[in-house]
């Protein structure tokens, strides 16, 4: 599974790759990545769409993007933060005027507790963790996507995993493992 | 690292990978359901006068519009909203529209107090000083939610003699919207009766993040919601005396409570958001007279994370000034331009302005029109200096700003559903001799598109000059990476 995931679009686009093919291949993964950061399918679809749109513009502009998949994920990472900040304000309004979505309706088998814990991490840790578990990306690719050094990614992953373990792995489980 | 630590990390790794797999599976299943639903749903009939079908061009990037022009049309309408999300979408739309525009519903009152909405179009205020390097970068008419069929008004009650009157407020919200938007009765909560109406009582997150109880019920023209961090019985007692004014009779409130503020349920920060997507989502329905927001920033930063100052003025009562407290936990009463003002500070940014936080100051001019100056990533003293230095600006100057720095007002709206995502207009750029902008939708997770899209006319724009400049130009040379 890991290698299959890693093959999904992080590498350079081939000379004959059309944007349409790229978008078809990438959209679902971008939505998934956006969802891990936002927790809202509608927002995730919008963020993924924004990322594809921006990538398409850069693609057609001939900016020479070596790794459009990484480029698109970087956009998702940045815009997901923006959208959640905005959504935070909207949620405060919705606290008075409306109901909240039930995430299990959209994604019935997803481990929402786990991803909720990921979203509770600092932003960069959450992004690194999401790319690590969702797409099984190596540290170097995560570093490229997040625009930081591989060593920094390792720190994010280590701290994030420890925080998740503290939050999710009961103390009694230690003895069983 | 101890063996125990390793075991815990191994456990979390296993769970994380499993969580990734199930998420991808769920999303794939969801996409399949959405596509099936889309295929089963007929495309709505075109309105009279619509044009002939316009084929979506091939999907090669070279066939798409000039990529140096970012078209800021509203995103195409996604497939029919699923019932589970409908209510949320409706509530979000109401909240956002109320936030950006401020309701202008004129409420008839029988107690001699002025209507909630006061004042008509007035001279705008523009800065006589802005931080160095700042220039106007956007100007737009604030959308009028009433024009779109919504209004949300709020009245807030608290004990003015307590240390912080806003620490335990009771609010009544009157949300006017049609039944389709409201989406029916909320799921969950406890069914109760309020003043003879079926109502729903539930616990929710209140302003500032604390817990509160809220009860809502349908009224003739929408919803009434009463909420506060009190006991359920106290909230129900307040609700029994609530009216659509909106108001709560003192007999229904805890002792010592008085009205603290009332006005449109408006979050000044939302309409001053720097999000392109947000602005394009909400400027549809803008109308002259509903207020103007002008953003000042360093134009070299366009499209990038940037500090900015936004000056906005819109209709509303003076009592709406203190409603700024609903949106900030760190607030302070002050005086700006010799008038009562409220300052709010926060680091929860509605825009990508870095980590320097947001400072908002709000007051009402003598005409009763609330003015907001919001700084994103700008020091508080600079925000206050902008506020104190505002000068009257005539309609011609404001119109000039709108025309020169307009943001998106869709000239036409088109819908074409062939899949699950929306795409930029697939026609020649404005001014290149092509047809008017159209919008298409195409699949990105299914077969290549082969269907057609019918261009629709949404009627004449209110101000053609604004429409004609509805685009921003990319500056690729300034980009160091995606934003």
Note down, in words, how this protein is organized.
The complex is a heterodimer of chains A (177) and B (483). Chain A has 10 helices and no strands. Chain A has helices at residues 2-6, 19-38, 41-61, 68-97, 103-106, 112-119, 123-135, 139-146, 150-168, 171-176. The longest helix of chain A is centred in the middle third of the chain and has 30 residues, at 68-97. With 483 residues, chain B is of the alpha+beta class. Chain B is globular, with a radius of gyration of 25 Å. The model of chain B is unreliable at 41-121, 273-286, 349-355 and 408-483 (pLDDT under 50).
Largest sheet of chain B: 7 strands, antiparallel
What is the overall shape of chain B?
A: globular
Radius of gyration of chain B over all CA atoms, rounded:
25 Å
Mean pLDDT of chain B equals: 63
Q: What is the string of SSEs of chain A from the N terminus onward?
A: HHHHHHHHHH
Oligomerization category of the chains in this entry: heterodimer
Query: From the alpha-carbon coordinates, what is the Rg of chain A to the nearest angstrom?
Result: 17 Å
Distance between the terminal alpha carbons of chain B, to the nearest Å? Answer: 38 Å
How many H/I helices of chain A? 10
Count every beta strand of chain B, where a strand is a DSSP E run of 2 or more residues: 24
Percent of residues in beta strands of chain A: under 5%
Short description:
Chain A has ten helices and no strands.
Please tag this protein with its features.
heterodimer; A: 177 residues; mainly alpha; 10 helices; 76% helix; disordered N terminus; B: 483 residues; alpha+beta; 7-stranded antiparallel beta sheet; 9 helices; 22% helix; globular; disordered C terminus
Topology:
The complex is a heterodimer of chains A (177) and B (483).
Chain A: H1 2-6, H2 19-38, H3 41-61, H4 68-97, H5 103-106, H6 112-119, H7 123-135, H8 139-146, H9 150-168, H10 171-176
Helix pairs in contact in A: 2-3, 2-4, 2-7, 3-4, 4-8, 6-9, 7-8, 7-9, 8-9
Chain B: H1 3-40, E1 53-55, E2 69-71, H2 83-101, E3 124-127, E4 135-141, E5 151-158, E6 170-176, H3 179-182, E7 190-194, E8 197-205, E9 211-219, E10 222-228, H4 232-240, E11 242-243, E12 247-248, E13 258-264, H5 268-271, H6 276-282, E14 292-297, E15 308-313, E16 330-336, E17 339-346, E18 358-364, E19 370-376, H7 380-388, E20 390-393, H8 395-404, E21 421-422, E22 441-442, E23 452-454, H9 464-468, E24 471-473
Antiparallel strand pairs in B: 1-23, 2-24, 3-20, 4-14, 5-6, 5-13, 6-10, 7-8, 8-9, 9-10, 11-12, 14-15, 15-19, 16-17, 17-18, 18-19, 21-22
